[in-house]
């Protein structure tokens, strides 16, 4: 059996921040802005599309170095650097000492996020060695879409909706009907998962594949 795909964050300068543990879940949000038009005498105004809003993604990551005793800050500092100015970027102006943090892309198997800036990083240290060295941390990374994109990822065809989605990484021996039963309590919804992820043959489901799981309230029976 193939090992599960490992998630990582790729920076603008092609550096890679490996996730020691794949996230248990992640959420994606996309919204559109509509403005009401004047409609005298009507109970509700007609809405006019104004513009799309940048997509957003939230990652909950765990870093643990208890196996080797190294400080977990070796990993968390890489995340924190994503909200700091990177003077190695080509558009840095050294004359007036101005610059910006890098944009990033989140990868997990066949799933690839939109190009994003890191809007916020929260690090919570939860376990320490006897000498005070932090060995475990829970991190929340908030990403915001950096520029317009034609697609949100190889397996996120429902990206036009403002509803958040969960990503499920297939484990060895899992089937679509079992995954549907886990997330929806109904194994018969496996066809919806196949449609949402462009799966032509459910019998060829490979371990390590990242599947988009639409929120239950956004799923209707066919």
Unreliable runs, pLDDT <50, ≥5 residues?
154-164, 218-222
Structural class: mainly beta
Number of domains: 1
- Average predicted confidence as pLDDT: 83
Order of helices and strands: EEEEEEHEEEEEHHE
Main β sheet profile: 8 strands, antiparallel
Terminal Cα span = 33 Å
Rg measurement, Å:
21 Å
Give the overall shape, derived from the CA principal axes: globular
Supply the number of helical segments: 3
Helicity range of the residues?
10-25%
Proportion in β-strands = 25-35%
Could you give the count of β-strands?
A: 12
Keywords:
disordered C terminus; single chain; eight-stranded antiparallel sheet; mainly beta; 222 residues; two-stranded antiparallel sheet
Describe the structure.
This protein has 222 residues and is mainly β. It has one domain (8-30, 52-218). The protein is 11% helix and 33% strand. The protein has 3 helices and 12 strands; from the N terminus they run E-E-E-E-E-E-H-E-E-E-E-E-H-H-E. The strands form 3 sheets. Strands 1, 2, 3, 6, 7, 8, 9 and 10 form an 8-stranded antiparallel β-sheet that branches. Strand 7 and strand 8 (111-112) form a beta hairpin. Helix 2 crosses helix 3. The chain is globular, with a radius of gyration of 21 Å. Residues 154-164 and 218-222 have low confidence and may be disordered.
Characterize this entry briefly.
The chain has 222 residues and is mainly beta. The chain is built from three helices and twelve strands; from the N terminus they run ββββββαβββββααβ.
């Amino acid at each position: 059996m193939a090992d599960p795909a490992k998630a990582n964050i790729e920076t603008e300068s092609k550096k890679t921040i490996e996730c020691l543990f794949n996230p248990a879940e992640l959420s994606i949000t996309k919204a559109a802005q509509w403005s009401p038009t004047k409609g005298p005498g009507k109970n509700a105004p007609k809405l006019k599309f104004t513009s799309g809003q940048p997509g957003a993604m939230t990652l909950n990551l765990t870093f643990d170095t208890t196996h080797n005793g190294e400080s977990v800050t070796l990993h968390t500092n890489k995340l924190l650097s994503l909200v700091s100015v990177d003077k190695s970027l080509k558009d840095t102006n050294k004359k007036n000492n101005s610059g910006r943090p890098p944009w990033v892309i989140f990868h997990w198997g066949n799933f690839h996020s939109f190009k994003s800036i890191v809007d916020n990083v929260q690090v919570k240290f939860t376990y320490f060695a006897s000498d005070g060295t932090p060995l475990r941390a829970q991190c929340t990374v908030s990403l915001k879409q950096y520029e317009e994109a034609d697609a949100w990822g190889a397996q996120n065809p429902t990206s036009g909706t403002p509803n958040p989605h969960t990503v499920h990484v297939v484990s060895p021996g899992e089937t679509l009907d079992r995954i549907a039963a886990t997330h929806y309590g109904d194994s018969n919804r496996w066809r919806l998962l196949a449609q949402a992820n462009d799966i032509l043959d459910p019998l060829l489901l490979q371990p390590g594949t990242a599947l988009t799981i639409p929120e239950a309230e956004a799923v209707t029976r066919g």
